[in-house]
Every structure is written in C-alpha cells, then in structure tokens.
Amino acid sequence: MSRTDTRRGKKGGRIRRLFTWKKLLGTFFVGCLLLMGAFYAIYLMVPVPSANAQATMQSNVYKYADGKILARTGEINREIVGLEKIPRDVQNAFVAAENKTFYKDNGVDIKGTARGALNTITGKGKQGGSTITQQYVKNYYLDQDQTVTRKLREMVIALKVDQRMDKSEILAGYINTSYYGRSAYGIQAAAQSYYGVDAAKLNVAQGAYLASLLQAPNQYDWTAASATGRKLVEERWNYTLDNMVEEGWLDPAKRAGFTFPVPQKPKAAPGMEGQRGYLVEAANQELMRQGVSEEDIKAGGWTITLNIDEKKQKALVAAVERQLEAKLDRKGDKKDATVQAGATSVDPKTGKVLAMYGGIGATEHWTSNATRRDYQPASTFKPIVLASALENGAKTQDGRRIGLGTIYDGDSRRPVEGSDVAFAPENEDDRSYGPVTVQKATNSSINSVYAQMIVDVGPGNVKKTALDLGLKDGQDFGESPAMSLGTMGASTWDMAAAYATLDNHGVKVTPTIVKSAEHKDRKADPVKPIGAQVISREAADTVTKAMTGVVRSGSGFRAAGDYHAAGKTGTSENNRSAWFVGYTPELVTAVALFGEDTKGNQVTLTDTINAGRANGGKTPAQIWGDYTTSALGGGSDARFDLETDDSAVVEPDGPTPTRTTESPDPTPSATTGSPDPTPPPTPTTTTPPQPTHTITIPAPPTETTEPTQPTGPPIEPPVGGNDERPGH
C-alpha cells in the first residue's frame, strides 16, 4: 500500500470515529431535549393575553379629496350567541370544514403549524394547518400577522386555552369571532346577511356554506364571486358535507339530497345611504386589489381619502335627479321602477375618479351601477374598433387604408366580406345609406360599416386594443363581427377608462378612487393611474376627431354645450341599456341606463323614461351634458390638441351645413345581441368605386360633415329624425 493510500485510510478512519451512529443519534436526542426545554420555557413565559383590538374594533374614516369627512364605518356587525342556539348539525359542519379532530386533539396541530411557519419563512404566503382552537386564539387574543413569532405564540396559547376551556366554549368562541365577509362578524350576523334568518334557524346545508366561507370570505361570497370562486366554494361545501358523513354526523341518504344553498344578495350596512355606500365600497374594492385584505379593512383604523370632488359629486347626482329621477314615478309605475342609472367621471390627465353615481341609493339598490359589468356597452364600443383600425394600419378588403375619409358601403343588412362567421346587421330603421365615409358612419352609428370594419381589422386585434385601452378580459368578447356592436360586458368605470385613454392621446389611464389610505402603522400602495403609451397619439387623436362629429352633428347632439366635446351613444339589444360616453379636454364621463326588474333580471327600457326607446342619445346624453356644464362651471374654452392624419379627414365641400340637416339619433339594430346570426335575405348592392387616399365629397342635403363647433343649446332635429335603436 502506498503512503497516499495509508494517509487516506487514516483520515477516513478518523472521520468515521468522529461521526459514529451513536454520536449522531445522541446529538439528535440532545437537540430534541433542548428544543423541548426551550418550548417548555416559552410555554411558562407566554401568558394568555386579554382580548385583542379586534374585540373593540375602530371605525374607518372616509374623506372627500379636500379632507371633508364623507363617511365613517367600522361598527361591529356581530351578535354573540350561545352554542345552545346553534343547531348541532351546523356546529358539526364547522368542525368538519376546519378540524375533524377538534374533539380529540389538545388544541394544536404541530405538523400543520410547522408547515405554515416554514411557508411563511420561505415567502410562500399565508398557509392553513391551524386547529379551531388556534384560529380562535388568533381571532380573539392575537392579530392577523403571518410571522413565525406570532405562530409560536398562537400554538402556546392554544395549548393553555385547550386546558382551561371546554371544547364547547372554544367552538362557540371560534364561530362567534370569525369573519364571514359582508361586514359580518360571528355566525348570527352571517346567518342574517347571507340567508336572512337567525343562526338558530340555519339548516345543515346553509351552515356548511358558512363554514366553507371562512377559508376565503371575499372570494367565496357567491353573489360576488367569479366563476372560479363559485367553483371553489362549492367544492369546499361538498368537502365539508362529505367529512360530516365520514365522521358519522350526517346520514348519507340525507346528504345525497342536498343542493347548494345559494345565499341572498348583500345589503348595505346602516349609515351607507345614498351615494356614500357606493363610494365606500368602490374604495374598499380598490384597496383589496392593491393587496389590503378585506379583514384588515373591516378591522378598522384606516383613514381613507378619496379622489372624489364633493362639488362634482353633487353636480352628478343633481344632473341624474333633473334629467331622470324627476321624470320617473318609481312608486306608482312598475316600468319606471326598472330604470337604473350609473356613471363614472374621470380626470383624463390624472386618472382621478372625480364623481361616481352608483344608483338610487346603496341601502335601496346595493349593486353599484357604476362598476357592474353585466350589461353591454353597445355602440360606445365602435370608437375602439376605429382606434384599432388606425393603430394597426388596417385596410379594407380591396386594400385601402382605413381613415375617417374611407368610404364604406352603408347599406342595411349588407353581409360582411372576408369573415368565416356570417353577419349582416340591420341599420337603424333598416335604413341603407349607400356609400358613406367612416366619419359619417361614426356620426350616425351605422352598423353595417362597423361590422365590416372589424372584419377588416380582425376581431382579435380589436379585443387587444380594447384591453389595452382599459376594458377587462373575461367579459365574453366573442371574437366575431358582432363584437363591433359592443356585445361584451362593461361598466361605466371601464368605458370611462377607455375613453380617458383616448382623451389622453393614447397614454393609458387607470381610474383610481383612492387618493391615500393610512393606518396607524402602515400605508396602502396607491394605484398607478397613468401608464404607458398603449396606442399611438395619432390613432387616439383621430378617434377623438371622429367623435367630435357625433356631438356636433350626430347621435350625441343633446350632449353639446359651451365646451368642445367628443363622445358616442349606444343602446344594447332589446333596449336593455342606453349609454353616452364622452369627454372634453378636462373631463371624461360615462353615463348609462340599465333596465333591471326586482329580481335582478335585465329588462327593456322601452316606454320607461320616455315613450318608445330610451336610447343613448336621449336621457344619458342629457345627463352627461347637464353634469358636464355644471362640473366645468358653466362651460370651458379648452380645445382638443389633436395630431391627426389630415389626409383622412373629410372636409365639407361648400358652406357648412347647419345642425338640423343631420339625422341626430341613429338607431341601432335589434340584431345586436345575436352574435352570429344567419344573414337575412338582402338585395344585391353595388360597392361604389373606392378612392385610395384623401376623399372630398359634397355635403348632401340630409347629412352634415364636420360643421363648426356650435355654442349654446342644440337645435332640435326636424320631426322624423333618426332614433337610435337597441344595439347601437
């Protein structure tokens, strides 16, 4: 054997002698004893504290932008009930959902707590694994912080509490201190909020839902949950009931007959009357999107300053009162009672939400009409189609680049060309326009033109532009030619965001209602309201140019005033919603009417606010004009600073025609809501010769092309003018 081998052998022998199995095992046991000793020392040192601050919750204070108090919230919606008042099946549901071994364990789950602590240390976020006793300790004695120290204290105190209290006391404390969403603390408040009954009247299916809800109250509230949230809570509800069967607490045959107990719609807490409830809820939702938990907000102690301008807020409410509510008989006329109004007003330079109208009052109609996304925006989507065409340099089927002067075939029921999906939408009153410019098609909201345009651009490209501008995904865009008529869902908030981005020359505007949110020891990160350039300035400004024609001489003429404005009307299928979205250089506002019956179903607005259709060019445009005039102090000299492709603009040939020559209220087609209908029989039309670039056409006696901005009140159209119909 060589010397090298000898040395290696000696070295290996020393290592083996140093790390023998006996020594390693001994070291392990000594380490365990030390850990046990340390834990025992901690056990002796950590006392059971008094109730935490959540037991005496603070209020949240909400303020207007100028610091004036808007509202106070935070009174605990909780009524402690004894366990004897909670049905045994419901008690078992909570145990089955959270901690099947509750009646057998000593109050802690060492493995679960260790896993939660490890995940917290490694940055994997909040993790479960706590027993009911531990959760009760967290709710009543500690706080919601996810730290290793807090986890360790929770475990020690849980052991002591389990020794000192009966299991029934612990379960009662847990059920009564837990947060269920909807500002409900404790099972009594939750039973009333979700099912309109006392806790004593809950059945096992309802109890299983409330028990399941505790895992994620905001995400699992059925009436507000996404499709994913609903699926998850229903899975957890089934999990809870299956565990009850497994533990022998529920008969399998009875369990098999259960159906998911859908909860009732939420109602506003007292003190949230009028618009205050809508504004507070919008602020809370924005904070939650920024990472502040709902539990944290409801625990209180926040001072939240909104961007809401009190004067503009009052002006918006007053405009709705004058132009809508004063003309309705909500109590005496069932049709009038179905009319709901919503609006969002934004500063396009800062993204601040300056005013918002959520409905007749948060304690009467809790769903905010400003932020709901279950109605179609109809033809207010057409400018987004145009923006996408301009941004993408799209061309017509015969190769002409699309601009405001591009001529399209405006005949009603004209089948689109170049699409795999057949579509032949009807224009208002089934009117055929023949060859028209894009500017005229925008002014008069001509369906056949925009249906062809979206095919030319590509529905996928238009959807991308819509999302870039501020609309939200998941609202069933349905990438087909029918999308040109605004068949997806959108809120006034969303449409204000998209139009604000256009007003801001293509720089992304994200509306934000929270100016600041401060707690005694922390602050919430604000939303970044102004983003990147999402479409070119030329594209955005050209769309603005097109929409000035809508207000000057098109369907939005009732929105005109002593200011320069751009906008678009829209009315959805069967007249279920009517919109006007528009802007001046200083202010963007989206106004909409929605038809909704007492059960929350969408119904027509026809023969409600006025005889016949309640289209976007009427009441919504009037509300918009009334509010804008007040918000701008009676008017404004500000002008749009536009950079457009002048070669695409059609200038009138000869004297500028007057407003009365334009048919003011183009009517959308009733086919809007059918995404891909089979084209109806239509006479053959001849596509007119198409110029390649700039076009100049004489102003026909029945149309207007780009007149000078008028001042003062608009001239009413002649009798027999166009009237916007559902879908446009």
Count of discrete alpha- or pi-helical segments spanning 4 or more residues? 22
Q: State which percent range the strand residues make up.
A: 5-15%
Estimate percent helicity.
Answer: 25-40%
Q: Which segments are poorly predicted (pLDDT under 50) over 5 or more consecutive residues?
A: 39-48, 123-127, 648-728
Largest sheet, spatial ordering of strands? 5-4-13-12-11
SS-derived structural category: alpha+beta
Shape: elongated
Compose a concise summary of this entry.
The protein is an alpha+beta fold and 728 residues long.
Notable characteristics:
disordered C terminus, 13 strands
Structural overview:
- By secondary structure, this protein is α+β, with helices and mostly antiparallel strands.
- It is built from 22 helices and 13 strands.
- A 5-stranded antiparallel beta sheet has the order 5-4-13-12-11, with helices on both faces. A 4-stranded mixed beta sheet has the order 2-1-3-9, covered by helices on one side.
- Helix 3 packs parallel to helix 9 (204-213), helix 5 (132-140) packs across helix 7 and helix 16 crosses helix 19.
Element layout with pairings:
Blueprint: H1 3-18, H2 21-45, E1 60-63, E2 69-73, H3 88-98, H4 110-121, H5 132-140, H6 148-164, H7 167-177, H8 187-195, H9 204-213, H10 217-220, H11 227-246, H12 252-256, H13 276-289, H14 294-299, E3 303-306, H15 310-323, E4 339-346, E5 353-357, H16 382-391, E6 407-409, E7 435-437, H17 438-443, H18 447-457, H19 459-469, H20 492-503, E8 507-509, E9 514-518, E10 530-533, H21 537-553, E11 566-571, E12 577-583, E13 588-595, H22 619-631
Parallel strand pairs: 1-3
Antiparallel strand pairs: 1-2, 3-9, 4-5, 4-13, 6-7, 8-10, 11-12, 12-13
Helix pairs in contact: 3-9, 3-11, 4-6, 5-6, 5-7, 9-11, 15-22, 16-18, 16-19, 16-21
